[in-house]
Hints:
The protein folds into two domains: 3-77, no CATH class; 99-240, Jelly Rolls, CATH 2.60.120.260. The protein starts with a strand and ends in an 11-residue tail after the last strand. Strand 3 and strand 4 (45-47) form a beta hairpin. It has three helices and 22 strands. Helix 1 (6-18) crosses helix 2. The chain is elongated and about 70 Å long. By secondary structure, the chain is mainly beta.
Amino acid sequence: MKTVKILLIVGAIIASSFGSAYAAVNLEPVNAFFNRGVSFVLNGELWQPKDQAGKPLAAIFYKNNTYLPARALAEALKVPVNYDAASQKIYIGGKPGEKTPIFAMPMEIDNIYAILSKDPKETLVNGKQVKQVLKIDQYGDVIFTLDRKFKRLVLDAAVISPGEHEVEFSLYNAADTAGNTANTVLEMQTVSPEDDVKQLIFNVEGLEKIKIHVQSHNLNPYIYARILDTSYFDNGDYAANDGLK
């Protein structure tokens, strides 16, 4: 196997971005090997890690340990990976505290009974003015593509006048691979007309695609439910939230 001087490779990259002072303090020279004999099996199928340009990557062997390319592996497992140059941190699994607004996500909605609206009259929800809502006046579904990038869905929801019924918000696994489990409610929470705007927190960790189904327990009455644009997805500590330990 051909010896690889990692210091020369990494040092050139780091020095160009952060200067030689950073490199002198934080980089340590090592001799390692590209192990091109290692192959990868991911979920039962052969897998070849590649860089962002599509060039095949090999494992590195150093001191009896095999090192894999973090970004390629994380992306194959559909786990988000981000590098923060300022703090010199690599985040695998998403940045804590970072929020993605709900309506910025790829989604599909039931266009008959669930409608996105920016009408100022419809975005005034129980005295709270927002920019956009998903209005569900009878029942409806909204499907989000997550690609396993988030742990939580934090949903701000309300029932507005003249709604009279408690409304159920049910979480389903909507992935193509869900099979029979696609019909199983993973979690269900409720909002009543007396709740004003209520925050619902759903655990979506590990899910590629989800469906939120909204309806009254009485099936088909008009419910006048609203999902607000203050809702978001994040990677916060699901278990640490009030009432969810």
